[in-house]
Amino acid sequence: MGPDGDLIPVHIITGFLGSGKTTLLRQVLGSPAFANTAVVVNEFGEVALDHLLLQRVDPDTVVLQTGCVCCTLRSELGAALRDLYDKRERGRVPPFDRLVIETTGLADPAPLLFTLMADPVLRHHFRLGTIVTTVDAVNGARHLAQHLESVKQVAVADQVVLTKTDLVDWASVDGLRAAVVRYNPTAPLFEVPAESFASARLFMGETSASRDEAGDGPGSPPAPARAPVSAPDDGGHAIDRHARDISAVSLTVELPLDWTAFGVWLTMLLHAHGEDVLRVKGILRVRGVPIPVVIHGIHHLVHPPTFLPRWPTDDRRSRLVLIVRKLSGPAIERSLRAFLRLAVR
Amino acid sequence: MCALCGGLEREPHWTDRLPRDDPDADGAASGRRSREAQVALVNRILGEHGLAVRDWNAHVFVLSNRTGQSEMVPQLAAVWSVVERRWQCRCDPLDPALLARLEQEDTLEGEPRHGT
Question: Looking at the domain assignment, is residue A232 inside a domain?
Fold first, then answer.
């Protein structure tokens, strides 16, 4: 297998029903930079995409015997991607440079990501790119409050696009921004249509699982550490029940950490609580490694670690963000500390 | 496939030695040291259950109990599920009893803390 650069990036656009995924996708694909893009959709949208490579995938999940509910394989998706790659290699379709998958509005993106990462064939030809989640400014707050799928879609995002912001007042947009940040404090937020440049920046640069030269893209380090995020009891959304369960836990480690101890800890944590770990994202200062190590995980899945060429700021502490459900931030902190201590005994 | 033991090539795992870790070192030797370190740490955790893991030829881990019952495990992340399935031992790093034991044994390495 070649380096990451030889693999075809698979970008994912997800978001709740009616949140503007297809509209955004059409906008992005209108850019010359996305000329050689294959598109895979769960269901045909209303937008004509005739000029694009298009493949339809029916949702069909297979629960692995050893897996949990969150670790399912999308068998049809795997077959579709293998078929698409085969056609590309045989010259039966143009040699696309990237792939964009548009999920259904009700999809939990985790099985899709698991398919990409766990399929022994796919992972030698494709790599996970950027995960973009659309959140509708009109209905997004209600979706987040009422539908766990919507929360998961935001939690796994590398970039979040607030759509239809021209249809609501600024206060509503600000409230939605706060709700999104609550579930994903690390993902850059864009607004459509207020930020017309957003589409040019989406999916561009490096990826969720790869090195990021620019330093402000999806592979960039988590936002500065902050206190665990939790919803106020009288939060802005009256029925924000998910907010009571889901929190973002940010940890910093002052000294270089031991990779072995970190691996033992995280594998054990994801074994025991992977269903409740929606996202892991970190930039780590690892003992013996002169450059930052970037780590991403979703539920039980952890990407192969990647490297940044340099530290993006003078702050060289390890920073780790976990978006968790019904897990105690202080308990996670205590656990990480105890496991890191193991390495120096 | 290994011509001597017939073992299939092991799939890389994210917990493996980092490729940028000590690039001047001999890769095989460094990989063995990394596996040895993993084994040592895991055994610190499994010891209270009467279980132990050992590395077999830098290829798989072999998990055993005190009566010699063994099971091969392909990579580190699978150790915990095998322990729970076969020996019904809960592997939870948030278990207060486990943490209390580890905290008694060790000295400080890093200082993770919540930011402000």
Answer: no
Would strands A98-102 and A37-41 be described as parallel, antiparallel, or unpaired?
A: parallel
Cβ pair B111:A273 closer than 8 A: no
Same domain, A193 and A277: no
Residue among A256, A289, A327 minimizing CB distance to B20? A289
pTM to 2 decimals?
A: 0.75
Q: From the CA of A86, how many Å to the nearest CA of chain B?
A: 23
ipTM for the predicted complex: 0.85
- Which amino acid, A329? G
Residue in A closest to B77 by C-alpha: A267
CA distance to partner chain A, nearest, from residue B70 (Å): 19
Q: What total of structural domains would you count in chain B?
A: 1
Cβ separation of B103 and A338 shorter than 8 Å? yes
The one-character DSSP state at B17 is: P
A26 and A159 share one domain: yes
Please, is A140 exposed, middle or buried when counting C-beta atoms within 10 Å of its C-beta (0-12, 13-18, 19+)? buried
A2-52 residue pLDDT tens = 445 588 988 888 998 888 888 888 888 777 777 788 888 765 444 444 344
CB–CB contacts below 8 A, A to B? 157
Kind plus residue range of the DSSP H or E element containing B53: strand B51-56
Is residue B116 one of the residues assigned to a domain?
A: no
